[in-house]
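Re: duplicated header lines in exported structure tokens

Our pipeline writes sequence and tokens for each protein into one text file. With two proteins the header for the second block appears twice in some exports. Here is an export where it did not happen, for reference. First protein block:
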Amino acid sequence: MLRWIRQQLGFDPPHQSETRTVYVANRFPQHGHYIPQRFADNRIISSKYTIWNFVPKNLFEQFRRIANFYFLIIFLVQLMIDTPTSPVTSGLPLFFVITVTAIKQGYEDWLRHKADNEVNGAPVFVVRSGSLVQTRSKNIRVGDIVRVAKDETFPADLVLLSSDRADGTCHITTASLDGETNLKMESQFQQQS
């Protein structure tokens, strides 16, 4: 009943099942009942703004700060009511603070866009149609087999299928996830029969 209500309200789309089936190397069944599942893509987006939403989103975030909102109210009151001080005395500093902060946040977001594009455009090797193909990390799909060499960054969440080490292990660092720089040992996936 609860699932039906969630589906009707749009929180839980009806075409998604409770289990996920991942087809290795994206080899889908030829016959039978197959419903394609939508998975998120592998693009990394750490930026907050786009060209279209920068001004409204930035203004909204800035006026959520109590000091900026207070000075906006003071400025509006000075515009509407005859006060002994000029509205410029509160409006000009507010405009200056808002402008400088917007420029700073815009520059920081531009740097995030550059870093995202660098990570998303990193070359990776993926098995497609039985051969090793070079592509960008943003084009990795769920089910792809990815080759990662020594000292390379993992381009996605991966399951270790094999390793060139005799014991089938590899050592990884998770510094980009949790800041820890020590090596962790991972064992290769063992198929159960």
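Second protein block, exported in the same file:
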Amino acid sequence: MDFIIGGLAGASATIFTNPMDVVKTRLQLQGELRARHEHSAKYRGIFHTLYVIAKNDGATALQKGLAPAMLLGFCMNSVRLGIYHIAEVQGWTKKKDGDISIHKAMFWSSASGVMSGIAANPASVVKTRMQAAAHPSIAVGRQHVYNGMIDGFFKIYKVEGIQGFFAGVNATCARLAIGSAAQLTTFSTVKQFLLAHGYWEKSPATLAFSASLVCGVVCVLLETPLDVVNTRLYNQGPASKGGLMYNGVFDCLRKIYKKEGLHGLYKGIGPLYLRIAPHTTLSLVIWDMLNILFNNKIR
């Protein structure tokens, strides 16, 4: 039940945040391995990107990759939140006096993040490639044509084999270990801090909402460079399709910084924040409320 609750929370939140994920993917692939003066920008900021996508591909294109995105949300959050909730209930994240142990909370949140990344990576690859696919006039990055999520899974397996589903998995695990440690540790710590100071003791929804807002800011600052790397590695495809542009995480980081500068490593930070902040808020609030309802029911 811990895993199902976490998965439902993540999948539900994805419905609302997927358009920002589409925008983020396009911005992160734009000007790939080229300096800013070497290409003309098809997308200029969040609102312009939303407008351009809707104009050229239709408004429904803002929900491209929704099916694998929801599968990703379910797989990732069922494992991540499920493992972390078990650790919380068992007292593995606390000191002997009952207070949150930062070190223990970071360990369990990082471990749960890595496990969730491995479980959800196939869905991440399909999602990113479907979100990048666009009308030729606004296309950025390599284009992969899939007729839906199932077709995407079949084509990746046929051309790239099992390893195709785990493109960028090292970057995924690193990003999620850092992101989950920041998110869940910050969430637990801020909640404890607010309760200790008498805030929203009788309003768990407001308490969870306030703590999750802080999480969003912390996560986006730490995650963006690795998120850019993830997007590039997911989308590059097999070596047979024009050759590999990147040979792993560090090669990707090095090439982006060399060609695009620090700006390249923080491409898409705006939509990433607008995706992470509400997704973090919705996921953690829904997760907290479902756990409260479930715990009250079994009592």
